[in-house]
Specification:
Radius of gyration: 18 Å
CATH topology: Rossmann fold
Number of helices: 6
Pfam families: Glucosamine_iso (PF01182)
Protein name: Probable 6-phosphogluconolactonase
Structural class: alpha/beta
Order of helices and strands: EHEHEEHHEEEEEHEHEE
GO cellular component, one term: cytoplasm
Helix content: 10-25%
Number of strands: 12
Number of domains: 1
Strand order of the largest sheet: 3-2-7-10-11-1-12
CATH class: Alpha Beta
Distance between the termini: 10 Å
Shape: globular
Largest sheet: 7 strands, parallel
CATH architecture: 3-Layer(aba) Sandwich
GO molecular function, one term: 6-phosphogluconolactonase activity
Function: Hydrolysis of 6-phosphogluconolactone to 6-phosphogluconate.
Length: 280
Protein backbone atom coordinates (compact mmCIF):
# COMPACT_ATOMS: atom_id res chain seq x y z
CA UNK A 1 0.00 0.00 0.00
CA UNK A 2 1.08 3.64 -0.32
CA UNK A 3 2.38 5.42 2.74
CA UNK A 4 2.71 9.08 3.43
CA UNK A 5 6.26 10.36 3.68
CA UNK A 6 5.63 13.46 5.78
CA UNK A 7 6.66 12.26 9.23
CA UNK A 8 9.09 13.35 11.93
CA UNK A 9 10.50 9.91 12.56
CA UNK A 10 11.79 6.84 10.75
CA UNK A 11 10.70 3.25 11.26
CA UNK A 12 12.90 0.71 12.96
CA UNK A 13 14.74 -1.50 10.53
CA UNK A 14 13.96 -5.16 9.75
CA UNK A 15 10.41 -4.86 10.98
CA UNK A 16 7.35 -6.19 9.17
CA UNK A 17 3.98 -4.85 10.24
CA UNK A 18 0.68 -6.47 9.35
CA UNK A 19 -2.50 -4.53 10.02
CA UNK A 20 -5.92 -6.19 10.16
CA UNK A 21 -9.52 -5.10 10.34
CA UNK A 22 -10.44 -7.47 13.17
CA UNK A 23 -9.10 -9.89 15.75
CA UNK A 24 -10.57 -12.76 13.76
CA UNK A 25 -8.47 -11.77 10.75
CA UNK A 26 -5.39 -11.62 12.97
CA UNK A 27 -6.11 -15.14 14.19
CA UNK A 28 -6.49 -16.42 10.62
CA UNK A 29 -3.22 -14.93 9.40
CA UNK A 30 -1.37 -15.83 12.59
CA UNK A 31 -2.38 -19.47 12.19
CA UNK A 32 -0.96 -19.56 8.67
CA UNK A 33 2.20 -17.79 9.84
CA UNK A 34 2.78 -20.25 12.69
CA UNK A 35 1.95 -23.19 10.44
CA UNK A 36 4.56 -22.16 7.88
CA UNK A 37 7.28 -21.72 10.50
CA UNK A 38 6.36 -25.05 12.09
CA UNK A 39 6.61 -26.91 8.79
CA UNK A 40 9.96 -25.30 7.91
CA UNK A 41 11.40 -25.99 11.38
CA UNK A 42 10.33 -29.63 11.37
CA UNK A 43 11.74 -30.12 7.88
CA UNK A 44 15.06 -28.45 8.68
CA UNK A 45 15.59 -29.41 12.35
CA UNK A 46 13.16 -32.20 13.13
CA UNK A 47 11.50 -30.12 15.87
CA UNK A 48 9.42 -26.98 16.34
CA UNK A 49 10.23 -25.12 19.57
CA UNK A 50 7.76 -22.33 20.30
CA UNK A 51 7.61 -20.07 23.35
CA UNK A 52 4.33 -18.37 24.21
CA UNK A 53 3.13 -15.58 26.42
CA UNK A 54 -0.18 -15.99 28.15
CA UNK A 55 -3.13 -13.74 28.78
CA UNK A 56 -5.15 -12.52 25.80
CA UNK A 57 -2.59 -13.93 23.34
CA UNK A 58 -4.04 -17.41 23.76
CA UNK A 59 -7.33 -16.31 22.21
CA UNK A 60 -5.52 -15.73 18.91
CA UNK A 61 -4.42 -19.38 18.65
CA UNK A 62 -7.91 -20.76 18.12
CA UNK A 63 -7.63 -21.14 14.35
CA UNK A 64 -4.76 -23.61 14.81
CA UNK A 65 -7.20 -25.93 16.55
CA UNK A 66 -9.42 -26.03 13.46
CA UNK A 67 -9.15 -27.46 9.95
CA UNK A 68 -6.86 -27.73 8.17
CA UNK A 69 -4.15 -27.17 10.78
CA UNK A 70 -5.45 -29.59 13.42
CA UNK A 71 -5.02 -32.41 10.89
CA UNK A 72 -2.08 -31.30 8.76
CA UNK A 73 0.50 -30.02 11.26
CA UNK A 74 2.95 -32.53 12.72
CA UNK A 75 1.99 -31.87 16.32
CA UNK A 76 4.27 -34.67 17.55
CA UNK A 77 7.24 -32.43 16.72
CA UNK A 78 5.96 -29.42 18.65
CA UNK A 79 7.66 -28.39 21.92
CA UNK A 80 5.86 -25.74 23.98
CA UNK A 81 7.54 -23.27 26.34
CA UNK A 82 6.55 -20.01 28.02
CA UNK A 83 8.44 -16.76 27.55
CA UNK A 84 7.03 -15.71 30.90
CA UNK A 85 4.85 -17.14 33.60
CA UNK A 86 3.16 -15.93 36.75
CA UNK A 87 4.42 -17.62 39.94
CA UNK A 88 1.06 -19.16 40.78
CA UNK A 89 -0.29 -22.69 40.86
CA UNK A 90 -0.97 -24.35 37.50
CA UNK A 91 -4.70 -24.37 38.26
CA UNK A 92 -4.74 -20.68 39.24
CA UNK A 93 -6.88 -18.35 37.13
CA UNK A 94 -3.83 -16.18 36.32
CA UNK A 95 -1.58 -19.06 35.28
CA UNK A 96 -0.39 -18.73 31.68
CA UNK A 97 -0.13 -22.51 31.60
CA UNK A 98 -3.78 -22.92 32.59
CA UNK A 99 -4.95 -20.37 30.03
CA UNK A 100 -2.90 -21.93 27.26
CA UNK A 101 -3.87 -25.49 28.14
CA UNK A 102 -7.58 -24.73 28.16
CA UNK A 103 -7.54 -22.48 25.11
CA UNK A 104 -5.07 -24.34 22.90
CA UNK A 105 -3.01 -27.30 24.10
CA UNK A 106 -5.97 -29.46 25.15
CA UNK A 107 -7.46 -29.07 21.66
CA UNK A 108 -4.50 -30.36 19.62
CA UNK A 109 -2.48 -33.61 19.89
CA UNK A 110 0.78 -32.21 21.27
CA UNK A 111 2.46 -34.92 23.41
CA UNK A 112 2.18 -34.15 27.11
CA UNK A 113 5.93 -34.59 27.55
CA UNK A 114 6.57 -31.83 25.03
CA UNK A 115 4.89 -29.15 27.17
CA UNK A 116 7.36 -27.46 29.53
CA UNK A 117 5.69 -25.49 32.31
CA UNK A 118 7.49 -23.95 35.29
CA UNK A 119 7.78 -25.66 38.66
CA UNK A 120 4.89 -24.12 40.55
CA UNK A 121 5.95 -25.78 43.80
CA UNK A 122 9.23 -23.86 43.98
CA UNK A 123 10.02 -20.30 44.97
CA UNK A 124 9.99 -17.91 42.02
CA UNK A 125 13.81 -17.72 42.15
CA UNK A 126 14.18 -21.50 42.08
CA UNK A 127 11.52 -21.80 39.38
CA UNK A 128 13.52 -19.46 37.12
CA UNK A 129 16.73 -21.41 37.81
CA UNK A 130 14.99 -24.72 37.09
CA UNK A 131 13.46 -23.43 33.87
CA UNK A 132 16.78 -22.16 32.57
CA UNK A 133 18.47 -25.48 33.44
CA UNK A 134 15.78 -27.39 31.58
CA UNK A 135 16.20 -25.18 28.50
CA UNK A 136 19.97 -25.65 28.65
CA UNK A 137 19.53 -29.42 28.61
CA UNK A 138 17.26 -29.23 25.57
CA UNK A 139 19.73 -26.94 23.79
CA UNK A 140 22.46 -29.55 24.35
CA UNK A 141 20.44 -32.15 22.44
CA UNK A 142 19.29 -29.53 19.90
CA UNK A 143 15.58 -29.90 20.60
CA UNK A 144 15.94 -26.15 20.90
CA UNK A 145 18.39 -24.58 18.45
CA UNK A 146 21.40 -22.53 19.50
CA UNK A 147 22.47 -19.10 18.34
CA UNK A 148 25.88 -19.02 16.69
CA UNK A 149 26.29 -15.42 17.81
CA UNK A 150 25.95 -15.75 21.56
CA UNK A 151 25.18 -19.41 22.45
CA UNK A 152 21.67 -18.43 23.57
CA UNK A 153 18.78 -20.77 22.84
CA UNK A 154 17.41 -20.11 19.38
CA UNK A 155 13.69 -20.80 19.56
CA UNK A 156 12.01 -21.32 16.22
CA UNK A 157 9.30 -18.86 17.26
CA UNK A 158 8.68 -16.65 20.26
CA UNK A 159 5.13 -15.34 20.28
CA UNK A 160 4.57 -12.25 22.41
CA UNK A 161 1.84 -9.82 23.34
CA UNK A 162 2.51 -6.19 24.23
CA UNK A 163 0.93 -4.24 27.04
CA UNK A 164 -0.17 -0.61 26.84
CA UNK A 165 3.01 0.32 28.75
CA UNK A 166 5.13 -1.40 26.08
CA UNK A 167 6.05 -4.45 28.17
CA UNK A 168 6.65 -7.83 26.55
CA UNK A 169 6.91 -11.17 28.33
CA UNK A 170 7.38 -9.97 31.94
CA UNK A 171 9.93 -7.34 31.02
CA UNK A 172 8.58 -3.98 32.15
CA UNK A 173 9.81 -0.46 31.36
CA UNK A 174 12.87 0.65 33.34
CA UNK A 175 13.04 -2.63 35.25
CA UNK A 176 16.53 -4.01 36.08
CA UNK A 177 15.62 -7.29 34.37
CA UNK A 178 15.89 -5.40 31.09
CA UNK A 179 19.64 -5.08 31.58
CA UNK A 180 20.50 -8.75 32.10
CA UNK A 181 22.94 -10.12 29.53
CA UNK A 182 24.06 -13.56 30.73
CA UNK A 183 20.90 -15.06 32.24
CA UNK A 184 18.46 -16.84 29.98
CA UNK A 185 15.58 -16.87 32.44
CA UNK A 186 15.15 -14.49 35.35
CA UNK A 187 12.56 -13.72 37.97
CA UNK A 188 10.90 -10.59 39.30
CA UNK A 189 9.07 -10.01 42.55
CA UNK A 190 7.80 -6.49 41.89
CA UNK A 191 5.73 -6.67 38.74
CA UNK A 192 3.77 -3.41 38.28
CA UNK A 193 0.86 -5.61 37.26
CA UNK A 194 -0.46 -8.41 39.48
CA UNK A 195 0.62 -10.98 40.39
CA UNK A 196 3.98 -9.49 41.47
CA UNK A 197 6.11 -12.65 41.19
CA UNK A 198 6.93 -13.90 37.68
CA UNK A 199 9.62 -15.59 35.66
CA UNK A 200 10.59 -14.29 32.23
CA UNK A 201 12.95 -14.82 29.33
CA UNK A 202 15.61 -12.14 29.12
CA UNK A 203 16.09 -9.90 26.09
CA UNK A 204 19.12 -11.83 24.76
CA UNK A 205 17.01 -14.99 24.59
CA UNK A 206 14.07 -13.25 22.95
CA UNK A 207 16.30 -11.54 20.41
CA UNK A 208 18.09 -14.80 19.55
CA UNK A 209 14.91 -16.43 18.21
CA UNK A 210 14.64 -17.31 14.54
CA UNK A 211 11.23 -15.67 14.45
CA UNK A 212 9.47 -13.26 16.79
CA UNK A 213 5.83 -12.23 16.48
CA UNK A 214 4.21 -9.54 18.59
CA UNK A 215 0.41 -9.34 18.71
CA UNK A 216 -1.17 -6.09 19.86
CA UNK A 217 -4.74 -4.86 19.62
CA UNK A 218 -6.73 -1.87 20.86
CA UNK A 219 -6.28 1.88 20.76
CA UNK A 220 -4.70 1.85 24.23
CA UNK A 221 -1.65 0.21 22.59
CA UNK A 222 -1.33 2.72 19.74
CA UNK A 223 1.25 5.00 21.34
CA UNK A 224 3.39 2.10 22.57
CA UNK A 225 3.29 0.52 19.10
CA UNK A 226 4.33 3.83 17.56
CA UNK A 227 7.29 4.17 19.94
CA UNK A 228 8.28 0.52 19.62
CA UNK A 229 8.57 0.42 15.83
CA UNK A 230 9.93 3.95 15.37
CA UNK A 231 13.58 4.97 15.36
CA UNK A 232 12.64 8.13 17.24
CA UNK A 233 15.30 9.10 19.78
CA UNK A 234 14.34 12.73 20.40
CA UNK A 235 11.36 14.65 21.68
CA UNK A 236 9.11 14.39 24.73
CA UNK A 237 7.68 11.02 23.67
CA UNK A 238 11.00 9.39 22.84
CA UNK A 239 11.21 6.01 24.59
CA UNK A 240 13.97 5.47 27.13
CA UNK A 241 13.47 1.86 28.12
CA UNK A 242 10.48 0.49 26.25
CA UNK A 243 10.78 -3.31 26.27
CA UNK A 244 8.91 -3.84 22.99
CA UNK A 245 11.27 -1.39 21.32
CA UNK A 246 14.22 -3.49 22.51
CA UNK A 247 12.91 -6.54 20.67
CA UNK A 248 15.38 -6.56 17.79
CA UNK A 249 16.29 -10.02 16.46
CA UNK A 250 20.04 -10.50 16.11
CA UNK A 251 19.63 -13.00 13.29
CA UNK A 252 15.93 -13.50 12.77
CA UNK A 253 12.62 -12.02 11.69
CA UNK A 254 10.18 -9.78 13.56
CA UNK A 255 6.53 -9.46 12.56
CA UNK A 256 3.90 -7.31 14.27
CA UNK A 257 0.24 -8.38 14.08
CA UNK A 258 -1.92 -5.32 14.76
CA UNK A 259 -5.53 -4.30 14.45
CA UNK A 260 -6.45 -0.89 13.03
CA UNK A 261 -6.72 0.68 16.46
CA UNK A 262 -3.28 -0.41 17.63
CA UNK A 263 -1.79 0.74 14.33
CA UNK A 264 -3.59 4.10 14.30
CA UNK A 265 -0.44 6.15 15.06
CA UNK A 266 1.55 4.54 12.25
CA UNK A 267 -0.28 6.01 9.27
CA UNK A 268 2.35 8.65 8.57
CA UNK A 269 5.46 6.50 8.90
CA UNK A 270 8.17 6.90 6.31
CA UNK A 271 8.28 4.73 3.23
CA UNK A 272 11.29 2.58 4.05
CA UNK A 273 12.42 -0.58 2.28
CA UNK A 274 13.03 -2.35 5.57
CA UNK A 275 9.59 -1.46 6.92
CA UNK A 276 6.97 -3.68 5.31
CA UNK A 277 3.45 -2.57 6.13
CA UNK A 278 0.63 -4.72 4.85
CA UNK A 279 -3.08 -4.21 5.39
CA UNK A 280 -5.51 -7.11 5.32
Amino acid sequence: MERESSTPYEPKRNCEIRVFESSDEISTDLAEYISEISEISVKERGYFAIALSGGPLVSFLGKLCEAPYNKTLDWSKWYIFWSDERAVAKNHAESNYKLTKEGFIAKVPIPHGHVYSINDNATVEDAATDYEFMIRQLVKVRTIGVSERNDCPKFDLILLAMGADGHVASLFPNHPAMELKDDWVTYITDSPQPPPERITFTLPVINSASNIAIVSTGDDKANAVHLAVSDTTEGPDAPTSLPARMVQPTDGNLVWFLDKEAASFLESMNDDASYEHREY
